[in-house]
Fold each of these.
Amino acid sequence: MKGLFKSKPRTPPDIVRQTRDLLVYADRSVSIPDLRESKRQEKLSELSKNLRELKLILYGNSDAEPVAEACAQLTQEFFKGDTLRRLITMLQYLNLEARKDATQVVANLQRQQVNSRLIASDYLESNIDLMDFLVDGFENTDMALHYGTMFRECIRHQIVAKYVLDSQHVKKFFYYIQLPNFDIAADAAATFKELLTRHKSTVAEFLTKNEDWFFADYNSKLLESSNYITRRQAIKLLGDILLDRSNSVVMTKYVSSMDNLRILMNLLRESSKTIQIDAFHVFKLFVANQRKPSDIINILVANKNKLLRLLADVKPDKEDESFEADKAQVVREIVSLKP
């Protein structure tokens, strides 16, 4: 007789629906009135268990790989209703372990395909205001790393990255990557890099439209920052951006600016070998430009001896034939310049 009353095992959609219903208990201020705190904690414990189960379905474990069909069912149910919105907005009210599990679930769902479609992208396109919530989360010290991970995974979708680049949010990263909390600043820097390198055509369009203010801020706030780590990350990212073929038009304009050249020459003088080498990879673009404006030529000629001495000292720790060949070419070009 006992077997007749066995409960049916829960399907992935069941777990998603129950999770959605349980999220209402997360925020005490909007939770069901007159609910005893002990009962609410019971519900939150159930919610944490569900989030662990969702993570297990999506990621598998040491004993079993994820099952594609279960992942597809879970993903479809998750984006049917407002589960993602509820989970993101209620995240701050969950305990640390539940937050970690929820963050991993949201991150994984951005990559899940249903019938060869990334349905997370369609959902976010219709609920794009969630990106406003996540980007402002960088200012919440307790939540920034959770929100940052979710945000970075969401901008894998081109439509989402375009929204962020076309909004005022992109300007906030000049501040976020210099926050005093090292972990949050590093996370913001990783997100800024993703935003400016992943979707080539979208980034090229953004830079072409916004190059004047963007590079003015990039130079003054990042490349000329008093913070060594900020300068090191910024010069590396600048090289990644300018050396990308998609940004060739923007690159040509950047290397025609006297102010930009002055900043790069100062970075070549840094005591940090890492900054020197990354600065060299941008500096060589100024020298290699076959249509150098006269003021660029004049600066290079006026500083010829200083630059040759500087370049003689710029060497990577390990032998690098490609780097040495580039440097030899730059030196030849500078030596041959005439006012």
Note: Residues 200-223 form the longest helix (24 residues).
Amino acid sequence: MELHILEHSLKVASIEKEGIQVCTHGLIKLAFLASRTRCKFFSLTETPEDYTIIVDEEGFKELPQSEHISVADATWLALNVVSGGGSASSSQPIGVTKIAKSVIAPLADHNISVFMLSTYQTDFILVRERDLPLVMHTLSSEFTLLRVVNGETVAAPHLGVSNGLVKPKLGTMPRPIIHPLSSPSNMFCVTSLDPDTLPSVATLLMDVMFYSGGSKDSGASGEDSSHIRFFSFSLIEGYISLVMDEQTTRRFPNNVLFTSASGELWKMVRIGGQPLGFDECGIVAQIAEPLATADIPAYYISTFKFDHALVPEENIQSVIGALRPESAAAAP
């Protein structure tokens, strides 16, 4: 398999809920008027706590300076696993559990922190730019490493260095789950739409992204306190990805959103009781490895404060069982 190191230099930032109005103009431009910017990588995810944005340096220039924006203190690079050749965005989703043991676990074993963004099309593994030599050293034995330069894929120069850590032997003990897990009551859809149809639903999407959360949350909380606000929009190299709850999808006209043949619904596992930060290693591996062992597919979206795994609705009980600390401790 090939591991593509994309050319985008990325910023990860948090926008406070009360400050979103200051940023709305720039965010709307990035989401709906991308042709008027030089931005090629943009993702916006709303959680109950805040908005997380992942954006390349050109796109970041569209946002104002504001006390409501907190920026992670590193430049990030996006990695993408491609099997069987072809571009990352045109291949089928590989799923974070399919790369758990080949990418996620080795990086965790070498104390390399990752930030995950699964989309409808593929999975992006974000690593700090300064960690790239160690990343390349860690993964070079399993992958053909390629860099994307000016849109062209070329062989990556060997920058690999070791940090002296020895690769663990197979069959070592499972990683303990050290952060609290919760599963909101709402069900989610992972979908997309044709960029040509984006103008026809732009007003609706703007309302979902910026204006309808407050009223909807208050109504939902009265009925079900475990129902949470979560919405993710990504526009990456011309491809759109959307993650929204089932109720929100009903607001869209028929035949606008892509759906799988099964119309699959996904349940969420939220990781973290307190904000996770960016320095701890192995959080994604703690979740992805047990799911991979159980052969359960998953999307995984990291945000500024918490992580989120999406698993098929019918698998949620198996997932909870696989991720319980006591089940990990009891595993042979």
Note: The radius of gyration is 19 Å.
